[in-house]
Amino acid sequence: MIEQPIIFDTSDGQQLRINMINSWFKNHYEELGLDAPAKIVKLSLDGGFTCPNRDGSKGTGGCLFCSESGSGDMASRAADDIEHALSKQIRLLSEKWPADKYDVKYLAYFQSHTNTYAPVEELRVKFEAALAAPDVVGLAIATRPDCLPDDVLDLLSELNKKTFLWVELGLQTIHDETARAMNLCHTLADYDNTVRRLTAHGIRVVTHLILGLPGESREMMLESVRYACRPIGDASESFIFGLKLHMLNVVRGSGMAQSMPDYIPFDSMEEYIDLLIAALEIVPPEITLHRISGDAPRSTLIAPEWSYKKRTILNNIHREMRQRNTWQGRRV
Ligand code: SF4
């Protein structure tokens, strides 16, 4: 039998062998309530929340890799005025995606800290304010796997019925010993429970995994990918909606910068790309990829020192996949 490569996107002269979320948007614009494809841009917001792993209710000090901004270094602060923060982001991005050239629509991305960690009334006000902004067609909400009380789940379920929504869960690893060492203060059981509850309400789940955590072998990292991509529950055809994979970034201001300042997650970009491709090969083609490289700003990055070269990393990944004649899902 001849194995045919899956090419997920051929527009713009691309031959993408990965089901990147931007390609998915082009073919599923109706799910965003649009009549025609548009350029979908995520607007990163800091909603002014904190994190139960910082204020003592789950832990203190935060996850060891977390930056002072709560892993939202590119986010605009929106605690008091969501509309103002969204306009600021739109201004910042308008040079890249000028409105006179592109039909641009936005997803409001609550990125920093734990965006389900507040009274449900406060969450409702902030999420609805974001949805009311011009050209915002959906929400992406990042949170911990152990921070989804029933009233917040009910709110998300309500929003999910009227807009496009995904919830990002920062699992990072399935290995509880790594989770303990990195002070994540949540467990795989927390993640499983939250995935089950979200998917029972039809809410899309995007799982975030970090490659290169201290103490993890290549096989351990691939086990995390395999686990996150397994069918959910008894519905053997149902998967998480999306996956975020990237290398560990050691950044200034994080616990790691203090406790392991010399730790280097990968010896070279090539080593990371080789692992990433092995990971992509076991991700079912249905699952969308939301990130495959890091995005820590160069100003805060300690290691790996090449991690800020996002465009180079992405180009090399795509080129290497073509050269190996491989694709996402090849080994599923
Ligand atoms: S749960 Fe998220 S915001 Fe909280 S400390 Fe960990 S990475 Fe940072």
Summarize this structure as a short list of keywords or feature phrases:
single chain, 332 residues, alpha/beta, pyruvate-formate lyase- activating enzyme, eight-stranded parallel sheet, two-stranded antiparallel sheet, 10 helices, 10 strands, 17% strand, globular, binds iron/sulfur cluster
Topology:
Layout: H1 21-27, E1 39-46, E2 76-77, H2 82-94, E3 104-110, H3 120-132, E4 136-143, H4 150-162, E5 164-172, H5 176-181, H6 188-200, E6 204-211, H7 218-228, E7 242-247, E8 250-251, H8 255-259, H9 269-281, E9 288-291, E10 301-303, H10 310-324
Parallel strand pairs: 1-2, 1-3, 3-4, 4-5, 5-6, 6-7, 7-9
Antiparallel strand pairs: 8-10
Secondary structure class reads: alpha/beta
Number of domains: 1
Bound molecules: iron/sulfur cluster
Strand order of the largest sheet: 2-1-3-4-5-6-7-9
Characterize the structure shown.
The longest helix has 15 residues, at 310-324. Strand 6, helix 7 (218-228) and strand 7 (242-247) form a beta-alpha-beta unit. The model has no long low-confidence stretch (mean pLDDT 93). Helices cover 33% and strands 17% of the residues. By secondary structure, the chain is α/β, with parallel strands linked by helices. The structure holds iron/sulfur cluster.
